[in-house]
Structures are given as C-alpha cells and as structure tokens.
Amino acid sequence: MKANKGNVQIDGIDKKILRYLMEDARKPILEIARHIGISGAAIHQRLRKLEKSGLLAGSKFVLNPKALGYTTMAYVGIFLDKAMSNPQAVKALEQIPEVLECHYTTGNWSILVKVLCKDNEHLMFLLNKKIQQIEGVSRTETFISLDQQIDRQIAL
Amino acid sequence: MKANKGNVQIDGIDKKILRYLMEDARKPILEIARHIGISGAAIHQRLRKLEKSGLLAGSKFVLNPKALGYTTMAYVGIFLDKAMSNPQAVKALEQIPEVLECHYTTGNWSILVKVLCKDNEHLMFLLNKKIQQIEGVSRTETFISLDQQIDRQIAL
DNA sequence: ATTGAAATATGTTCGTA
DNA sequence: TACGAACATATTTCAAT
C-alpha cells in the first residue's frame, strides 16, 4: 500500500464528491450522481481511484460524547524525564481509553495528549492516578477546553 | 432537537453495531446483521433510536492530508489583549481554512487552535500574516506535532 | 473517463409476534 | 424489541465509446 506523498491530483468533480461524503459518509453515490450530473458508475470509479491514491483514509460514524456523559475535554502537556522513556510512555498512554490523541511536540513538553473525561473529578483521577503514574512522566500541564468553537477537516 | 445530556442508555448490541460503523461508516447494515446475528430491520430500528438519542452525531469520510501535501500539524496557544476580543477572534479564525480546531481554554492562553499546513514555511506565513494580524491577538506560542501516535474516538 | 444496462446486494417499511 | 417478506434503491461490474 503505497501512500502518495503530497502529489495526489484531484479535479473539481472529485472535490464535489468528497465534499458530500465528508459531510455524510452514507450519502448514496447515486444521489450524489444526480446532484452533480454524472453517472453513478463514474463516481464509483473516481472513488476507487481516490482510495488507491491514499487520499481517502476511510470513513467513520461520529459519536457525541456528551450523550454518554463525557463533558470535560482537556489537553495535557507531559514532561518526560529522558527522551528514552518516550516509546514506553506512548504505549502506556495507548492503554488509557480517555486519551484520544497523542503527539510528540516541539517546545516545552515531550508529549501533548488530548483527553476526554466525564467531569473534573474524572479528569483529576486520570491525571493523578493514570498519567502521572506512567514511568518517565515527571510533570504535566493541563488545559481544559471550556468550549470547542471549531472542529473540521482539511478544506477542499 | 433535544440533546440528551449524559443519560443515553445503550446495550451490548448497540455497542457492537456502533463499533463496526465507527470503523467503517459504509459497512452495510445487513453485513453487520449477519455478523452479530440479528436482523437488518432490528439494526435499522436501533440506529434510528440512537440517532434520536443524540449519541449519533453523523458520519464522515476521512481524508489523509499528507496525500495533499499537508505535512505540518501544530497547536498554537493564543494570548488575547482582553476577553472582549474573543468572539471576534474566533470569527476571524473561522475564516482561516488551516485552522481545524479552536478551543477556549483554561491556563496560559485565551484560545488554543490546531492548524494544518503544507510545511514550515506555510506555518510561518499562517502565524505571522494571518493569526498575528487578527485584532486582539497579542502573542502566540506554537507547538509543532512531530508525529501523531494516537488518534481515536471515545471508546465503547 | 464516461455511459447505460444488467446482475447482485442493500435499505426501508410494514404487518406480526 | 425483533422478525421476515415485499418493495424500492443502491452498488458493482462490464462492454462500448
């Protein structure tokens, strides 16, 4: 599976198709076909091409975490004792379901993670009893997201 | 549209269905039905219920930004002069397509944004010519994501 | 790359349990 | 809730352009 690096060519029709499907992955291809005025078979073929190109990374159902009581989102900057602990620390973070993202970053911290918790108490438990317990973690800095105003993908 | 807040009840069958669809939004319901051993009509009905409950927020095609040459992701903490500038600043950030997320946060900054750029040069331009130009923005702190190790949704 | 048509598979509704 | 049957749509392939 070769991942085309930065040179996938898409035209306006590809963009139209993708814009529909980025908004609703289950939108029928034939419906899109009617909207943009080409045949379903053509769209089918274009999607196969886009998938092979590596631009299409898949599709997802999106859940609303608030409906399950998860109302507290936060970013946590993690200081590690030594760079050597990094891969182990990431492995430990993978085991924590509240950790949704994990980035190696430039700047102050070794690692920046995004976490999702039910409430502040849950967040406190996560920080003190889970994340701080990981070997190599010396200190953390937490930024609670009071409100997310923008959440989107790359624009076409 | 009432958004159930933290008390949506789902059982093991709901979870199984959602886990399939969170991984592949276009997986046929009938295929899932065969896997978990109930009828397609039952799944259809459960999905309608889950949608009404507010847990299902929709579905998306996921693109791989690297395929379009977007290889530099970063988090940018933004200091604002006065709290009053916040809504205006967010409006301005919405107009910048490279800004994918925007959070009001506790801690050092007023706002934390996630941005996606083609390269470091593009990031520099974004910071100096777009974000810093927004009225009320006094200073920014940038953390480049060298590598994203985890990227997932809430676990069921 | 695109089309229409054919074959297969799926989505959706409804009566019933 | 769940089922199956019936009907409406959609997906997928293919020969032809």
Order of helical and strand elements of chain A = HHHEEHEEHE
Number of DSSP-assigned strands of chain A: 5
What would you say the CATH architecture of the largest domain in chain A is? 2-Layer Sandwich
Biggest interface, and residues per chain? A-B, 69 and 69 residues
Tell me the helix content of chain A: 25-40%
- Shape descriptor of chain A: elongated
Kindly report the CATH topology of the largest domain in chain A: Alpha-Beta Plaits
Number of domains of chain A: 2
> Could you tell me the strand content of chain A as a percent range?
25-35%
Radius of gyration of chain A: 21 Å
Task: Give me the secondary-structure category of chain A.
Answer: alpha+beta
Span from first to last CA of chain A?
A: 24 Å
Uncertain segments of chain A: none
CATH homology superfamily name of the largest domain in chain A: Lrp/AsnC effector binding domain/regulation of amino acid metabolism (RAM) domain
